[in-house]
Amino acid sequence: MAKFKKITPLLIARRVTQLGVGTLLFNSYFKVFESKQIYDGPLKQGCVPGLNCHACPTALMGCPIGMMQYFAANHRFPFYLIGFLAIIGLLSGRFTCGWLCPWGLLQDVMRFFRSIRVKIPKLLNYGKYATLLVLVLIIPYITHQHWFSKLCPMGGLIAGIPWVVWNPTDPVFETSVVDPESIGSFFWIKMAILGAFLGLFLFIKRPFCRTICPLGAIYAFFNRVSLVSFKVKASCNECGKCSDLCPMDLDVQTELNSENCIKCFDCTQCKHVEYEWNWPWQNKRNH
Q: Whole-model pTM above 0.85?
C-alpha cells in the first residue's frame, strides 16, 4: 500500500487553497502591525466558512463557532449564521474541512510518522457532536461565556501565542495590549491542550477534525446530501490504497461520504474511486 500521497495537480491545488485562501487571505489584515489593534471593520460582522480565530492579530472575519457561542451566550438565534452554514453544507458537506481549514492543513502536514498507524476508537468520532452541544451551545447559554474559545487549541496557536509574544503597546490606551498579570490558568490550560494535540498530529490522522471540531460536526449533518460525493467503482480490487491515502483514516469501502469524509479527493488517486455530482434533477431523471 502507498505510504505517501503522490504529488498531483489536485493535491497541489488543495494545498494552495488551504494555505493561500483559508490561511493567508482570511488572515490578511497586516495593518495590525502598524495599528496594534485587531480589525473591527464591516468584514468582522461576517465569518469565514472554516475554523479560524477572530482574535488572530491579522484576522479579517469572524469564526463561525465563535459567532455561534456569542449568540448562545446572548440567548439569541443566529438566523444568518445558520443559513450561511446550511448553504455551505448543502453545497459541499465537509469540503471546507479538506480544502480551506488552516487547522486541517496543519494536521495534514504534521503527520511525520506515517509508518506508525495509530487508530482512534470509532466511538470518539461522536465527540465532536458533544463538543458542539455542550461547549458551543449549552454552557455558553448558561454561563454567558465562550467556553470553546477559552479552550480552543487553534485559538491558542494563532491568537493567544502571537499576542502574548508580541504584546505591543496599545496606541489608544498607551498600555500593553496583554497585561502579564492577566495570563492566568486558562491560558496555560489552553497551551497544554495545544501541546497535546500537536503531539497527536504527529502520529494520528486529523484527530481534532474527527473527534472534537464542532464546525466539522455541523457540516457532517449535510455530508450525505451535499452536491459533491464519491463512489467506489465496481472494478475495485480492494487493494486498500484509497483508505491508506485518506487523511481522515476512513475505510473507503464502507465509510465513503460518511460524516467524517472531508471531500478532499485524495482517495481519487486510486483509479477505482471517482467523484460525482448529486444534481437534484439528475436523481429524479435516474429514478
A: yes
